[in-house]
Amino acid sequence: MHDTNNLIQRLPKCELHIHIEGSLEPELMFALANRNGVRLPYASVEALRQAYRFRNLQDFLDIYYQGMSVLIAEQDFYDLAFAYLQRARADNVRHVEMFFDPQGHTSRGIPFATVINGLHRAIVDAGRELGVQASLIMCFLRHLDEADAEKTLDSALNFRDKIVGVGLDSSEAGHPPSKFKHVFGRARDAGFFLTAHAGEEGPPSYVWEALDLLGVGRIDHGNRSLDDAALVGRLARERMALTVCPLSNLRLRVIDEMIHHPLRRMLDKGLVVTVNSDDPAYFGGYVNDNYRAVSGALSLTTQEITAIVRNGILASLMTEAEKNDTLADVDRIVAGSP
Q: What percent of the chain has pLDDT over 90?
């Protein structure tokens, strides 16, 4: 196991499914609350951590949106993103495609520019100071209506140089991807990369809709795809990447034990699986923690761990030259070179 942990630490990785608001650690949440005069309904950091006992996705989202209340000034968003990128560097993450939820902030009266400028400034500084490259994918909150998403896209178009993609997150059940067909069409026409959460709690039909109606280039989560053999065949044929989040699945009761995680079945069926942290401050671990948890529970081989890492690199939005350089580093590490 020591050798496996060492390999996981040394391999250069991409993280393709991280909600930056979900990296808000309790210590930083309290620090920002104090700075901004926000009163939290918890007496201490430990009391807040005790609240992270979720029965389902909605339990988590209720606390997730509550935590956002401390993010007010541009510097708050900078501090949030830079703290995550420091942790990413510690896990040898080379490239991050970072989700953010502007509607969770604009609905509180925080200007779109405040959010995007703080996050972008942290990304620029992290690239220069930490050697971690990052980009932003703006997610629409699916429990809100498409008209609200349309307004958010209008705002995003003013910052087209700072946003690479558009996604879909929040409460999945009862909010199919088809609800956002028009706004995703506009985003596609504007040149954004498209992705969507589908098949976490929602049925396989949501994955079909994300593919056929939204035209996404990746599926976030996708666990329930395994319930549909035809869908599995299509995902495998099209080499459609799934951004899987093992610790998130455990903490949100998508699975009851890590040994029951579907990742091995996904690999066995030829699916392009990647491993990511989702909302690491709430789910108990950053990307290497997720690799360690799933590799230990499922007894993944060195070859399987390396294949998952390569999947993340190939599924990323890095340039071909950057992908080739990173893959070459993977090969050197696996071969035992310094």
A: 92
